[in-house]
Amino acid sequence: MHARLARASALAPRDRPLRCVPRAPDAGRIPRRCWSCDNYARTTRHERACGGLMRIAATVLVMSMLAIACGSPNRSATPTPSPSAAAPSPAGPSAGPSAGASAIVSPSPSATAEASPTSPAVGAVAGIGSPAAGAVVVAAPRDPRGITALPRISGSRVVVVDPGHAVDEVGAAANGVVEKESNLDMALRVEAVLAAQGVRVALTRRADVRAFAGEYQPGAFSITRRDLQARIDLANESNADVFVSLHSNGSNSADDRGVETYYNSARPFSDLSRTLATLVQSSVVDEVSAVGYPVRDRGAKDDACLRGFRGRCFPLFVLGPARVTTGAELVQRDPAANAVATTSRATEMPAVLAELLFVSSPSDAALLRTEVVRDALARGVARGVIEYLNRTPPRSP
């Protein structure tokens, strides 16, 4: 008996004793104190029953191990691409950026449950690669709702997609998501969907770099303003039909969550910007809901007076009209700046800024760390843009 137990123990996991669980008809004949194999060994009147059950358990375990060994693919005969070559493993949760690693991580069971207790199973988000050339290639997202059924874009239409923030300006960072990295990953997904529909796409950045070239020299604009101005200039030089800036929100309250899309009403094409914002907003909410994750719809919003400085209204820089900044304001914001009034350049096309969920919300952040939701967010942005382009004529050169 002890020899049989020893052989069975050699096959059983060391951290979990093998249990001799009898079939239901026999359960009534075995005292509860004898349910473990050790108790069986010390109870002579049940040695035979335990031995038979042990032989069955050992046989099943050996057959299972042989089946696994025989069914496993021959990895040496069929080499597979290294994960780091296409999609590196996601980094672990981080409160801030980490060099060379994506802060988009797999949701923990608790985070996934908080995001949606009844939602389908989710997987890890593909990491952001860093090829030598500095470009990142992301496969086109899955399309359960059939975005490919939309009419392809005819003619030459150009969309500039702007992944917000970069370098030391990380944006919002909480709950395992760093915004600048999430924005870049999302922009690449949107680009893949738009390109598949015949849209020419230009990104303001394809790596963790600023949009302007060369070293920063203190001058009229702060380094942030110079970066934002370079993104606007790229869109204007591309003669883009629309400009779409991608961000995620942050708040001091963990209760703030959802999606919102901004436009500016103080532009000559404000009606077109509002239409674009409305289409993007509704499409994003619909796409995410369609995969089983209802999100809060915060609506399309006018940012004409979003921020105030000494009683003045300041919209988001990439959406607003050209503005004159006085020398005193420049020096107050950046003591190294020149005290000379400066006029910014505005976008020459309809523009929107999408805030895709709140990284400060544990439930929203769990969604941002979920592959199927990120695909849905990207599809939503792309669908809204495609519907807009199909309704409007191309911009004149």
> Low-confidence stretches at least 5 residues in length (pLDDT < 50)?
1-50, 71-138, 214-220
Name of the CATH class of the largest domain: Alpha Beta
What's the β-strand tally? Answer: 12
CA radius of gyration is: 29 Å
Shape: globular
Helix/strand structural class = alpha/beta
Q: Which percent range describes the beta-strand content?
A: 5-15%
Mind telling me which CATH architecture of the largest domain this is? 3-Layer(aba) Sandwich
What is the topology?
Elements: H1 2-11, H2 24-27, H3 37-42, H4 47-71, H5 83-86, H6 109-115, E1 158-163, E2 173-174, E3 177-178, H7 179-196, E4 200-203, H8 223-237, E5 242-249, E6 259-263, H9 270-290, E7 297-302, E8 307-309, E9 312-314, E10 324-325, H10 327-333, E11 342-343, E12 351-358, H11 362-368, H12 371-391
Parallel strand pairs: 1-4, 1-5, 5-12, 6-7
Antiparallel strand pairs: 2-3, 6-12, 8-9, 10-11
Helix pairs in contact: 1-4, 6-11, 7-12, 9-12
Question: Any key phrases for this structure?
Answer:
12 strands, alpha/beta, two-stranded antiparallel ribbon, 12 helices, 6-stranded mixed beta sheet, Aminopeptidase, 37% helix, 2 domains, 397 residues
Written description of the protein model:
The structure is a single chain. The protein is of the alpha/beta class and 397 residues long. It is 37% helix and 13% strand. It has helices spanning 2-11, 24-27, 37-42, 47-71, 83-86, 109-115, 179-196, 223-237, 270-290, 327-333, 362-368, 371-391; strands spanning 158-163, 173-174, 177-178, 200-203, 242-249, 259-263, 297-302, 307-309, 312-314, 324-325, 342-343, 351-358. A six-stranded mixed beta sheet has the order 4-1-5-12-6-7, with helices on both faces. A two-stranded antiparallel ribbon has the order 2-3. α1 packs parallel to α4 (47-71), α6 (109-115) packs across α11 and α7 (179-196) crosses α12 (371-391). It starts with a helix and ends in a 6-residue tail after the last helix.
